[in-house]
Amino acid sequence: MSRIRIILLTLIVLFGMAGNSLLARAALGGHLIGPLPFTAIRLASGAAILIVLMMVTKSRPRLHHLLMPMMLFVYALAFAYGYEQLGAATGTLFLFFAIQATMLAWEIRGGYRLSKLQWIGSGITLVGLWVLVGGITHLPKLLGIGLMIGAGVAWAGYSILGKNSMDDLATTTANFVYSGLAAIILLVIYTAIESWHHEVIHISLAGIYYSMLVGAITSALVYVLWYILMKELRGVTSAVIQMLVPVIVVISAAPLLGEQITTRLILAAATMLAGILLVTISKTNVTK
């Protein structure tokens, strides 16, 4: 793949992932829908659009690894519950920090050695996170932070497991079908329990719309492109380049969601971006 195509694909994926965070926060933070129905509709919508693409290409879903739909399910569920509590900018920074840390740890485990610049860049990224954490002192947010970190670890595992898949569309379709079924079953059980206690699950037409948009466009289609992109990038680069997503979200959260963008948040995003640049421009070192 040419460099121009890689750059264009990278931009599409990054803005798609940023759209995930912004749309999810708009739906969940605006109390348009609950986290569980959001997750179920998101995964089911993703499965539906991918099945249509499978029919067009006359191919079949193919499960690459049993853990992949499990990882996708855990990521999506923790992601939704996390965004119910955290703002888009803050939640995204924690989410993608966890992704970066997990993927870097996996690459090092596989024999990858960080260069001095990459160690420095990774350290600078951590400093950026520390700057952000310094502004979070309210105990209720700790649960949201933990959920976002868990979602990040699950997404990193999902990415790592699918990097060597032979058919990205078939693999992603299978993952969405199985994880979507799991989410729907969980939603049905939860709805039955709530009905027994005479409670009604909160859901609105706008919430359904947001969930479907996130599932079909910024999740399913973008994730297929993500697997294609990962095959063109070094493991460390694919891990760190995702840290551009929080920067996009920080810039977009104020005008689109009306979130307050503080000086601390801007400094954290800028510091993380500097760390990303150092890691991505460094040379690769692999031990045999």
Word description of this protein:
By secondary structure, this protein is an all-alpha fold. It has one domain (3-286). Helix content is 77%, strand content 1%. It is built from eleven helices and two strands. It has helices spanning 3-29, 35-57, 67-83, 88-109, 116-133, 141-162, 168-196, 205-230, 235-241, 244-257, 263-280, and strands at 112-113, 285-286. Strands 1-2 form a two-stranded antiparallel ribbon. The longest helix is centred in the middle third of the chain and has 29 residues, at 168-196. It is globular and about 60 Å long. The mean pLDDT is 85.
| Order of strands, widest sheet | 1-2
Uncertain stretches: none
* Number of continuous helical runs: 11
Count of individual beta strands: 2
Gap from first CA to last CA = 27 Å
- For this structure, the quaternary state is single chain
Notable characteristics:
single chain, 288 residues, mainly alpha, two-stranded antiparallel ribbon, 11 helices, 77% helix, globular
Concise structural overview:
Keywords: Cell membrane, Membrane, Transmembrane, Transmembrane helix. The chain has 288 residues and is mainly alpha-helical.
